[in-house]
C-alpha cells in the first residue's frame, strides 16, 4: 500500500510500505479521508515532537477492512473514526482521569503510523462508529471537533451565554457552531479574512469583526461595542501573540478565556495580572480531546455540525507531501487527503 512517510525531520515522501495486519484487539481500516492539520506541518519542520520514521495523519476515518483476535465491537464494513491520542492508563494523571495530560501520551499519526495511507491499524478502544450513510469525507472532522468540544466544556458555556472566538480557521469555525449548540445567544468571531467572516456568519456567528481596524477591545467590549462588557467565554483559536493577549481582556468580569491555539514552546506574551485579579477572569489552556471523541462522532453523525463548507480541497496521497511541506494556501480551511480519490 502507499503511505506518506516522515523519514526524518524535513524528509517526507510517498512510499510503498507493507499493509499492516491487525494485531489482537486491533482494527485494520481502509482510510476514506484524513485531514492535514497545522501539527503535521510543525512535525515536518521538527517543531513538534514525533517518532520518525512514521506515517503521518491523525485526523482520519474510514471503513473497517479486517479485525484482529478478540475484537468484539466492530466488524468489517463498518465506518469508524479514530481517536489518535492513546493514554497509558497507568500514570498518575491517567489514574486521576486526566487522560489528555498522560505522561506517556502516544498519538496515531505522530508516534505510530497514521492515516495518510491506504490503510491504518488502530486499537479498537480508539475507534468510534459512524453511520454507513455518512458522507465518507466528514468523519475526518471528528478529531478537530473533539478538541473544540473539550474547549467548550472547559469554558463552561451555558444557555444564554455570550462568546467570542478569535481566529476563523477550522478550530474557530467548529467552536462557533458548538457554542451555538451549547446555547450561546451571541457569538462574535474576530478573524482577518472577509471570506471566513462571511462563512462564519452562515455557520452561526451573530457578528464578526476584522482585528485590524482600530482598537478591537474597545470595538467589542466598549459601551457601543458588539458585546459591551465582554463575553462570558472567549476562545483563542488563532495561536498568535495578538489574540493570546486579547483573550483575557475580551472576557467579561468573572468570565473565562480558553486557549486552544498553539504557540511555539518558549514563546512569551504579556498579561496584566491586576486585570485577571480585579475582574476575576479565569484563563485556561485546552489540550486535545479527553473523552470527547465519541461526542464528536455523534455530532458529526447527526449532521448538526456543518463541515462541508470547511473542505477547501481534496487531494490524493501523491499530492499530500507537497501540501504538508508548504504552508496552507491563502484562505484555505481544511485540505483532505483522500487515498482512493482522484
Ligand atoms: P488555522 O487554520 O491556521 O486557523 C487560525 C486562524 O487564525 C487563521 O485562519 C487566521 O485567519 C486567524 N488569525 C491569524 N491571525 C489572527 C489575528 N491576529 N486575529 C484574529 N485571527 C487571526 O488553524 P486551525 O487548524 O484552525 O487551528 C487553530 C489553532 O488551534 C492552531 O494554533 C492549532 O495548532 C491549534 N489546535 C489546538 C488544538 C488543541 O487541542 N488545543 C487542536 C487542534 C488545533 P485569518 O486569515 O482570517 O486571520
Ligand atoms: Zn498515562
What features would you highlight for this structure?
10 helices, single chain, Quinone Oxidoreductase, Chain A, domain 1, alpha/beta, binds NADP nicotinamide-adenine-dinucleotide phosphate, binds zinc ion, 7-stranded mixed β-sheet, 342 residues, globular, Rossmann fold
Strand content bin: 25-35%
Report the order of strands and helices: EEEHEEEEHEEEHEHEHEHEHEHEHEHE
Count the domains: 2
Give the full name of the CATH homologous superfamily of the largest domain.
Medium-chain alcohol dehydrogenases, catalytic domain
Q: What is the third-level CATH name, the topology of the largest domain? A: Quinone Oxidoreductase, Chain A, domain 1
Rounded Rg: 20 Å
Number of helices, where a helix is a run of at least 4 consecutive DSSP H or I residues: 10
Enzyme class: oxidoreductase
GO molecular function: L-iditol 2-dehydrogenase (NAD+) activity; zinc ion binding
InterPro entries: ADH-like_C (IPR013149), ADH-like_N (IPR013154), ADH_Zn_CS (IPR002328), ER (IPR020843), GroES-like_sf (IPR011032), NAD(P)-bd_dom_sf (IPR036291), Zn_alcohol_dh (IPR050129)
Keywords: Metal-binding, Oxidoreductase, Zinc
Amino acid at each position: 500500500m502507499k503511505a506518506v512517510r516522515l523519514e526524518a525531520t524535513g524528509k517526507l515522501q510517498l512510499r510503498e510500505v507493507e499493509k499492516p495486519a491487525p494485531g489482537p484487539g486491533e482494527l485494520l481500516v481502509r482510510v476514506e479521508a484524513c485531514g492535514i492539520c497545522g501539527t503535521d506541518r510543525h512535525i515536518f519542520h521538527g517543531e513538534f515532537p514525533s517518532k520518525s520514521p512514521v506515517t503521518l495523519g491523525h485526523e482520519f476515518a474510514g471503513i473497517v477492512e479486517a479485525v484482529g483476535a478478540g475484537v468484539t465491537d466492530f466488524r468489517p464494513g463498518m465506518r469508524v473514526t479514530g481517536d489518535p491520542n492513546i493514554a497509558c492508563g497507568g500514570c498518575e494523571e491517567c489514574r486521576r482521569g486526566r487522560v489528555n495530560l498522560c505522561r506517556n501520551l502516544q498519538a496515531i499519526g505522530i508516534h505510530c503510523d497514521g492515516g495518510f495511507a491506504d490503510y491504518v491499524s488502530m486499537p479498537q478502544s480508539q475507534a468510534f462508529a459512524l453511520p454507513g450513510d455518512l458522507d465518507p469525507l466528514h468523519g475526518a472532522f471528528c478529531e478537530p471537533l473533539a478538541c473544540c468540544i473539550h474547549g467548550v466544556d472547559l469554558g463552561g458555556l451555558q444557555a444564554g451565554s455570550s462568546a467570542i472566538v478569535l481566529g476563523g480557521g477550522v478550530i474557530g469555525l467548529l467552536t462557533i457552531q458548538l457554542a451555538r449548540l451549547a446555547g450561546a445567544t451571541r457569538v462574535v468571531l474576530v478573524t482577518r479574512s472577509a471570506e471566513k467572516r462571511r462563512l462564519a456568519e452562515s455557520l452561526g456567528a451573530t457578528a464578526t469583526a476584522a482585528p485590524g481596524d482600530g482598537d478591537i477591545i474597545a470595538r467589542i467590549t466598549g459601551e457601543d461595542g458588539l458585546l459591551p462588557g465582554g463575553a462570558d467565554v472567549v476562545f483563542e483559536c488563532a495561536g498568535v501573540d495578538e489574540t493570546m493577549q486579547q483573550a483575557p481582556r475580551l472576557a467579561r468580569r468573572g468570565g473565562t478565556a480558553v486557549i486552544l491555539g498553539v504557540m511555539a514552546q518558549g514563546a512569551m506574551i504579556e498579561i496584566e495580572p491586576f486585570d485577571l485579579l480585579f475582574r476575576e477572569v479565569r484563563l485556561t489552556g485546552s489540550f486535545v480531546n479527553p473523552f470527547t471523541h465519541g461526542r464528536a462522532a455523534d455530532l458529526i453523525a447527526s449532521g448538526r455540525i456543518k463541515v462541508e463548507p470547511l473542505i477547501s480541497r481534496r487531494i490524493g496521497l501523491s499530492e499530500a507531501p507537497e501540501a504538508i511541506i508548504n504552508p496552507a494556501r491563502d484562505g484555505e480551511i481544511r485540505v483532505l487527503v483522500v487515498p482512493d480519490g482522484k
